[in-house]
Design goal:
single chain, about 260 residues, mainly beta, four-stranded antiparallel sheet, 18 strands, about 45% strand, binds calcium ion
Length: about 260
């Protein structure tokens, strides 16, 4: 496996300047790393048992769990970007070349959960602006509309036209008005809760809930909401099929859910 080299832009103080052999020499003291770039990973860098991790609130790194080996996506500035340098994506945006060739899908706002279902389809939810949270079926080359359309509106009350006004954008499979503030996502395939196999679980921040979603083809709908009384930041399925929830905040608890 080739290891990508990482480039860092470092902010530094100039401590000393002098001339030696006709050249200007600077003595620099690094202060902090301002920007880090790791180039695209080759396909074989993707681990077969890797999972989803949120690295920062605005960066979501995704490596699939072996079901779709050639897809790795990184959430960057409104796009899901494929780090796979060797699989041309073949859509209109990619045809622009350069960085655009890595764009997998566009028009996302703030995805905080992504997972594959049993059929290998990729789903991601995203926090809307004021309301209009979405669950989307992620397809290569699709534009999911933000900021041009949203079933929510701007926080200051200004209107954002709803999805239905612009059918050229991929409409959400499910959306929430009022908001649930989705965070964390797991499509359940465990044995402990057999009745929930195939359901998705979404943590809710403002809704302080665990939301269960069922799929029907390309559609999805909320079918159950558990009042957790606390903001739920993350949802994962454990290897034994237990559901793990992480509460938000410095005193947040890690909860393990099993059948009674
Ligand atoms: Ca959208
Ligand atoms: Ca709207």
């Amino acid at each position: 496996m080739r290891k990508p080299t990482t480039t860092r832009l470092v902010v530094a103080w100039i401590r000393r300047v002098w001339v030696a052999s006709g050249a200007l020499v600077l003595l620099l003291m690094p202060v902090y790393v301002w920007w880090t770039y790791t180039p695209r990973l080759p396909v074989d860098a993707l681990s077969s048992d890797a999972t989803v991790s949120v690295e920062r609130s605005d960066v979501l790194r995704f490596v699939p769990r072996g079901r779709v080996r050639s897809v790795g996506l990184v959430w960057v500035a409104g796009c899901l970007v494929s780090p796979d340098a060797y699989a041309p994506l073949g859509h209109a945006v990619a045809a622009q070349g350069g960085v655009a060739a890595q764009v997998w899908s566009l028009g996302h706002r703030n995805p905080l959960g992504i997972d594959f279902d049993a059929a290998g389809r990729l789903w991601a939810h995203e926090m809307g602006p004021a309301h209009g949270d979405e669950l989307n079926l992620i397809e290569r080359g699709s534009n999911y509309g933000y900021p041009i359309v949203s079933n929510g509106d701007h926080y200051d009350g200004r209107d954002i036209p709803d999805h239905a006004t612009r059918p050229e954008f991929h409409e959400p499979a499910a959306y929430w008005v009022p908001a649930i503030s989705p965070a964390g996502f797991a499509i359940y395939d465990g044995d402990l809760f057999k009745q929930w196999q195939g359901s998705a679980f979404i943590g809710g921040l403002s809704s302080k809930a665990l939301v269960r979603v069922e799929f029907a083809g390309d559609d999805a709908r909320e079918v159950e909401r558990f009042d957790m009384k606390r903001r739920i930041r993350e949802v994962r399925q454990g290897p034994d099929g237990a559901l793990w929830l992480l509460e938000d905040g410095s005193r947040g608890r890690l909860l393990r859910l099993t059948p009674r």
